[in-house]
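Quick question, first post here. What does this chain look like in 3D?
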Amino acid sequence: MAGKDKLLLPFAETTILGATCTALSKGGAASIIIVIRDDDVALRTWTENHRFQVAVNARPQLGMLASIQAGIEVMGDGASSHDGLLVSPGDLPLLQASSVQAVVDQAQVVYPFLVVPSHRQKRGHPLFVPPSLVQEVLQLDLELGLRQLLQHHPDEVAEVEVDDPGIYLDVDTSDDYEKILLLREASLTGQ
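> Answer (accepted):
Ran it through. Tokens below.
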């Protein structure tokens, strides 16, 4: 979606990012840190206006893991003392709060495992990272991404099945955006 700030595109009564943050908050996220590029004035303004904490990814070209690491660094020494982290892209506007809550609930049952939601055998977000693994995220290879964490701990991963394709329906293209809008409209009309 070159030239567009996809996270701020209208969705429902808010934006794509706003819908994602609402699901995370209602689903049990105690606080939200939004990671932005340093030059993204519009996203910084939106984030500050909605009273979310901002982290700046100075290396956005290195991908999502660099953003996750920037968010953890903003948390400082307290990152490992929290109850754990929920990691999610900001472009999941169909994500349901019930799916986030299912991840949070499962994390309490299988603690200290990683927890990932799945829908029809396809994994999505948010990923729960227990405090014991937060510092390891900072050591992961940026080229290989967060997936490494799951690969390093295959016996410490719990999946929770949810009835929610919103865990993986992100917005990367204009076609994705149109599809998301149509799916939302269909869900509102019961089709």
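The longest strand covers residues 114-119.
The domain at 6-189 is CATH 3.90.550.10 (Spore Coat Polysaccharide Biosynthesis Protein SpsA; Chain A).
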